[in-house]
Amino acid sequence: MNWFTKTFSSTIGRKLVMSITGLFLCSFLVVHLIGNLQLFKDDGGLAFNVYSEFMGHNPIIRTMEIVLVLGFLFHIYDAFVLTRRNQSARPIGYANSHPEENSNWSSRNMGLLGTVILVFLIIHLYNFFWRARFGELSIDAGGNPDLYIVVKESFGLWWYVAIYVIAMIALAYHLIHGFQSAFQTLGLTHKKYTPFIKSFGYAFSVLVCLGFAAMPLYFFFFE
Asked: How far apart are CA 32 and CA 107, in angstroms?
């Protein structure tokens, strides 16, 4: 196992792990967004509560939660290690360098964007996941725990809505760079297909994050 440890602790190995876990987390975002779209149904939250109850007790979903958590942890840890290595390689900044000429803003600030997303994730998990699993929720007309009420209460707070929207903006920028970078790291580049991957990644990043940001804005302004 020595070769395995050396490979995946190297810079290239960690970038591979970052790419694989990043693309896996992108698939989670799609599934999560589709489920959360139940919030827009005009049924008092019944459909959303059914979805939440299913996600909380289905054994397959519960198993995938472990995979998801591991994916997050590997992604965050490798991002931290790679950032530290890059900083160590350049302990003194170049006085006359112009990084903006060779890279876009999101690629130069992935650490900052990731930190904003991580802080939001901690708040979000406590507010919804923790309360859904370990809190005492009322029961809706369908006999399911009423997580919809928690959503309405949370999205009625201006500061929480602001944090949510800012985090989605940060996530969009993070994904715009990360999506294309993941394919490049995995060697899936081609002069014919790379422009499509870049365009698809941009559209994916913007649309997914707009979908998530629309939820708190809808509840705050219209509910």
From this structure: 25
